[in-house]
Amino acid sequence: MTKINWKELGKGFLLLLICLFFIPTVIGMLFVYFPVPDSIYTYLANGVNYLFLIFILVSVYKTSLWTDWKDFKKKWKQNIKIAFKYWILSFLFMILCNMIILQIAGNMAVNETENRTFIDAYPILSIFLMIVFGPFIEELLFRKGFKNAFQNPKWFMIVSGLLFGFSHLIAAMDFTSMEAFRNTLPQMLYIIPYGGMGFFMAKAYVETNNIFTSVTMHTLHNAIMISLILLMGLFI
Partner of 57 at 20 to 30 A CA spacing, among 46, 105, 121, 182? Predict the structure, then answer.
């Protein structure tokens, strides 16, 4: 039977709720009471949100983050090699899964569509949010936040991957009616490629015992995807 550290598991879920739901909701409410021009709302709201998330997560994990960073610098060649290896595997896995699921669901993941729209509309902001800040925040939430909760690394990788995958799909689900919910159910198939990516990131973390390895892998993936989308926009 898998041994679970319920205190660490609870801490991980609490941080998820605070960072993914509570903080964005509070910031959204603040901008209702203190409105700003539409031209700068997206920049300011996202900027404030991400800064709050980084502050909270760094405050929680500051000691281990500093230790991981010093270790990462000492073994940077090995860590980057592992990050690149698992990125290749996860990328191939995602491509294969997306090709199959696209035939079943009939359209790409809503999260992917929304990201492409956002990147086209705010290319510079997207670079900062999705390449500089996003990977760091998500790796602390989904990897570092749950690693110590499971004695068995395989269970950690599975749970981390599923949570990561689900977080990228929840916005696509429509709970307004049973019919609407059934219509969005095919989107849940995309938990397989997203969850697979999360699984490989967790594996990179486990293998090196260093969160910056999975951060590197995550950053590499986002950087390549955003670069491809921006290049496609120039020629289409």
Answer: 121
